[in-house]
## 1
Amino acid sequence: MSNGKLPVRDVFSSKFGVIAAAAGSAVGLGNIWKFPYITGVYGGAAFLFVYLGFIALIGLPIMLSELTIGRKSKRNVFGAFKFLAPGSAWKLVGVLGVSAAAMILAFYGVVAGWSIDYVAKAVSGGFGTKSPAEMESMFFRFIESPVSPILYQLFFMVMTMGIVFVGVKDGIEKYAKFLMPLLVLIIIVLDIRAVTLKGAMEGLRFLFNPDFSKLTGDGILSALGHAFFSLSLGMGTLVTYGSYVDDKNNLPLTALQVTLADTAIAILAGIAIFPAVFAFGIEPSSGPGLVFITLPNVFQQMPGGYFFSILFFLLLTVAALTSSISILEVVVAYFQEELNLKRHVSTIVAGVLIAIVGVFCSLSMGVLKEFTLFNLNLFDLLDWISANLLLPLGGLFIALFVGWFLGRKRVEEELAKGAGVIPWLLSVFIFLVKFIAPGAIAIVFLHGLGVFNFG
Ligand code: PHE
C-alpha cells in the first residue's frame, strides 16, 4: 500500500494534542525510573551534563529529523523509508525500528507492571515499617515470583492495547491530553515535598554540582543511549507520530518543546528523588531498585509519606502508559499499512505477541534466571540491546538519511509548510545531522565496542 496512493489516515486534532502525545511518549519510565538511577550509578551531575549535551546536539536534531520523515511520508516507519527512498535498502531502518519497538515494549510492560503493584502496595499501606533490608527482599520476592508480576504486566498491556485500539485522535491524543497535565501536577507536588525536607541541599548538590573525575567511558555510552531512550528516538516513534501531524504544524518548534518537556521532567524527577534520598541517608547509587526499594524507605520516614508514595507510583504508571502506547503504535501502524490489517486486528496481534515476550522477560527475573546470554537475562538483554545498540544505530541512520539522502532542499520544503524557515538555523540543523550526530554516535559506539577507550 505504501508506494502508491496515500491511505486515509488519522490526524492529531490540535497543536497541544501533538505535544501532549509526543511528550507523553518521551516522558516515561526512562525519566522517572531510569534517569535517576543511572545518574546515581554514574556519579551525579557530571553524567547529567554529558546527557544534556547529547540531548541538545544529537537528540533535538534527530527528533526533528524523525518528525520530518514522518510528516513528509505520512506513513509508518517502514513505509516511510520505502516511500521516500524507493527500491533502496533504507527500509531496513524501518525493520530495525519495528524490532526495537517490540523488544522495548516487552520489558517496559514488566516494569510498568511493577509500578502498578506498587500503587496497590502504597494504597494498602504495604510499606509499613519495613526496614531497608525487608523492603529489598519484598521487592525481589515480588519480581522473581512467577505469577503476580505477570498478571500486572498483562493488565498494563491490556490498558495500552485498549488506548491504541481506539485510534490516534480518539485514543492516543485524548488520553495524553488528560494524563500529561496530571503527571506535571503530581511531579510538582512531589518536588515541593522533596526540597522542603531537612537536608535536601545535599541531594541537589549531587544532581547539579559536577565532579567530572567520576565520569567513565561507560557512563558516556549510557548517557547517549539514555538520550535516545528518553526522547523516544531511533526507532521511528516520532516518525510514526509525525505522520499524524498536520502540515500547518511548526515542526522545529514542536521538536524543541517536546525535548524541553522531556528534559525538564527528568530533572524534576531527579529533584523529587535525590534530596529525599540524601535527607534520609540512603545510597543514591542503588541501581534499578532505586525507586522500588530506596524510595519506599524514604516515603516511610517522610511526613505525609503515605500520600506521597501513592502519588509517586501513580505518576510512574501514568508516565509509562503514555509511552507504551507510542511504542505499540509503531508496530500497529506497520502491521496496518504494510500487512493491510485492520487497526483493531493489528493492535491485538501486535499487543499479544509483545505481551508473550514480556511474560518471558518477567520470568527471566526468577524462574528463568539461569538462561543468560553475555551474562544477561532476557530482561536485561532486551534493555541493553535496544537502548545501547538499536536506538543509537537507528538514530545514526535517521540522521544520515535526512542529512545526506533527503538533503537541505527537501527538508526545507517540508519544514516551510508549517513555519517560516530561518536559513542559518536550517544550516545548523543540516550540519548537525550530516556530521555531528553521526560522528558522535560512531565515536561512542566504537568506544562501546572496545575499539578504543576514552574513559
Ligand atoms: N521515552 C520513553 C521513556 O522515557 C521510552 C521510549 C523509548 C518510548 C523508545 C518510545 C520509544 O520512558
## 2
Amino acid sequence: MTDIDKIYLVGFMGAGKSSVARALGRRLGWRVDDVDERIEAREKQSVADIFRLRGEGYFRAVEREVLIGLLPARHSIVATGGGTFVDPDNRARMLADGLVVWLDAPLETAIARVPRDGRRPLAADRARFTELFWARRAAYELAHVRIDASRPIEEIVERLLDQVGW
Ligand code: S3P
C-alpha cells in the first residue's frame, strides 16, 4: 500500500482526529486539512452557531461541499467531523479517494474528552451523545483500517504507519 497519497481520519467526537492529523502531517510532511475548520472559515461562523442559526441540514450541506473541495488534494491528511463519514455519499467519495482510518475510542474516552461547553452541538445531551456513539459504529466499521484511539497520539501515529506498511 505504498501508493497511498491521501489519508482520511474518521471516528466519533473526541477520538482525536484533529490532533492525530497534525501529528501525522508533521511526520509525513503532508498537508493537513480539518473539515470543521474549513466549514467555519467558509461560513465565518462557528460550528455551534451554524447549527443554531442555520440548522444541521445546512451544516451537512456545507460539510459535503467542503469535502468535495478537498478531493483533489494529494499528500494530504484530512481530519473529518464525527458525522462526515456517516453520510453515504461522503463515505463513498472518501473510500474511493484515499485510505480511510477509523480512530476508535471507547465511549468513556469520548465522554471524558468532549466537554459540554456548547462547541459541539451534538454533545450537549449525554443520552443523545451515547445513542449516536453506538448508532454510528456500523458506519465507521466500513473504514479501511481501524486503530485503537485510546492510546497516546505518538503511538497511534506509529501503529497507523505500521498498518500502512511504511
Ligand atoms: C459532529 C462532530 C463535530 C462537528 C459537528 C458535528 C458530529 O466534529 O463536525 O459538531 O456529527 O459528530 P468532531 O468530531 O471533530 O468533534
## 3
Amino acid sequence: MLGLEDFIEEAVEGMRERIPGKAIIACSGGVDSMVAAALASKAIGDRLLAVYVDTGLMRKGETEEVRGMLEDTGVNFRIADAAGEFFEALAGVTDPEQKRKVIGERFIRVFEREARAFGAEYLVQGTIAPDWIESGDGARATIKSHHNVGGLPKDLGMTVVEPLRDLYKDEVRDVARALGVKASERQPFPGPALAVRCLGEVTRENAEVVREACFIVEDEIAKAVSAGKMEAPWQYFAVLLPTRSVGVQGDRRAYGKTIAIRAVSSVDGMTATFSRIPLEVLDAMATRITNEMKSQVNRVVYDITNKPPSTIEWE
Ligand code: XMP
C-alpha cells in the first residue's frame, strides 16, 4: 500500500473523477463501510448518501451508536427504519438459510428504494481484499451462506465504486485512524444479526429477549475483562433456544425460555474453541439474565463445543 496520506489523496481524487453524479453507500457502522463512506464524502460531499438500515435485529444501542459515528464523520446519512417490514417478512420462517435469504432480499429492497429516492447512479462499497480473494472458488460446500447484508449485488443498476479493494483489514484500520473515523471496534457480528440467534421463528418479542440477553453477556464480560478476571473472547453472545423448561418462581411452577451463552476464541472464525470463562462470571451472567428477564427466561446454559464440529453461531 502507498503511504497513508498518499492513499487517502489518491482514493479521494479517484472517486471525484469516477463519480460525476450521486452515490449511495450502505453503512453498517463497521470499519470498512465507515471508511469507504468517509472517503467518498470527502470526494463528493453531499452527493453521497450513507444509508443505515435499521432492521430491528441490531444489538442494544447499536443504531444510536452508528448514528453518532456517522454524525462525527460528517457524512450525509439517513437511517431507514425498516424493522416492521423485516419482522413481517420473517413471520413463520424457521429455517436458518431461509432467514438469511429473506433478510438479504429485504435489505436489497429497502436499499434499492433509498437509492431510487435519492437518485443515486453510483454504489460505493467497502469491499476489502479478503472479501473478493476468499469468495468464489466454488469448490467448498455451503455450510452457511454467510450473506453479508453490507455486500450488495452488483446488478442494482448502479456503477460500483470500491475504494478499499486493495486493502487488508489492518490497513483499513490505519486509514480509519488517519481520517478520525470512529468505527465500531466491537466483536464480529453476523450480517443477519440477531435473527440467527433466535432459533425458530423471529418475532419482535424473541428479538427483544435475545437482544437483552446479548447485552447482559457483553456487559458482564466487559466488566470481568476490565477487572482482570479474564481476557476478552473473540466473540461472545446469547442465543434464544426454542425450548421451554420447567422452573420455579417463588413457590410457583414456571415454564420459561432458555438462553444459551456462547463465547469462543478464534483467529478468523474458521475454527474456534469455547472460552474457559471463570465460573463466577458465568454465574453473574446467569443470575442477571434470570433476574432481569424473570418473566421470560428461567434457564441459562453454556455452550462447551468447539468449531468444528459446531459452528460459532447456532444457525
Ligand atoms: P460460524 O457460525 O459459521 O461463524 O462458525 C463464523 C463467523 O461468521 C459469522 N457469521 C456470519 N457473518 N453473515 C455474516 O456476515 C452470516 O450469515 C453469518 N453467519 C455467521 C459469525 O458471527 C462468526 O463471526
